[in-house]
Amino acid sequence: MNKHAKMNQCCMKLVCNGCSLAARKRGIYDRCPFCRTPHPVDEASALVMIQKRVCKRDAEAIYHLGTKHFHGQLGLTNDVPRAVEMWTEAAELGSVEAHFMLGVAYYYGDGVEEDKPRGIQHWQEAAMKGHVISRHLLGIAEFNNENCALAVRHLMISAKMGHDKSLNNIKEMFMLGHATKAQYAEALRGYGDAAEEMKSHQREEAKGLGF
Question: How far apart are CA 88 and CA 98, in angstroms?
Fold first, then answer.
């Protein structure tokens, strides 16, 4: 999940921290800035909100509820098979985050039988839709398989999307002779450009206030 944003359970919209702060400045404290639904007061009401969206086959709600099953949150018992089942449904409906989590589950055998090719396939689906961590993990997987050229290609993309770990990995690969100086320089420039684009006065203010 984006560390600069929070998922609102009423409408499953991702609200950036800067926008949340702006809403508070407008006097919107206890409700969603998007749909104006009051925030849930407890876990039970939060679960009801999510389940309403699930009944409408909202991909993000199905993914979100699967994650709650995985972690045993909102009063649900820990149920990894159910989580994987829900992530699979959410992925089929277009949830990028569901593809990412299925990739993690299958690649590492986390709650399911390990199936690295299947995990890679889910990360590829997510990466093609702009999921930066999936792209980064594809790079790491290729490096572990000694496909250094392809690893660099993946990590270059995620570094240019502002992923600091990808940039550090390219630096390490350059020092080991697996990436060129030009590639590292290009990744460094791209990372800097992405970091600059993501800057926001409201976001920085929200961070300072602990959002």
Answer: 7
For the whole model, what pTM was predicted? Answer: 0.84
What gap in Å lies between CA 179 and CA 120, rounded to an integer? 23
Dihedral over Cα of 46, 48, 52, 57: its sign: positive
Write the pLDDT tens digit of every residue in 51-81.
999 999 999 999 999 999 999 999 999 999 9
Pairing mode of beta strands 13-16, 5-8: antiparallel
DSSP bridge pairs for 38: 31
Boundaries of every domain in the chain: 1-39, 41-129, 131-198
Task: Tell me if 49 sits within 8 A of 10, measured CB to CB.
Answer: yes
Per this entry, what is the length of the chain?
211
CA distances from 8 to 13, 77, 99 (A): 6, 22, 20
What one-letter code names the amino acid at 173? M
Instruction: Provide the CATH topology of domain 41-129.
Output: 1.25.40
DSSP symbol at 78: P
Q: Tell me, what DSSP letter sits at residue 153?
A: H
Which residues, in sequence order, are bridge partners of residue 16? Answer: 5
Cα 138 from Cα 151, distance rounded (Å): 7
DSSP string over 141-179: HHHHTT-HHHHHHHHHHHHHTT-HHHHHHHHHHHHTTSS
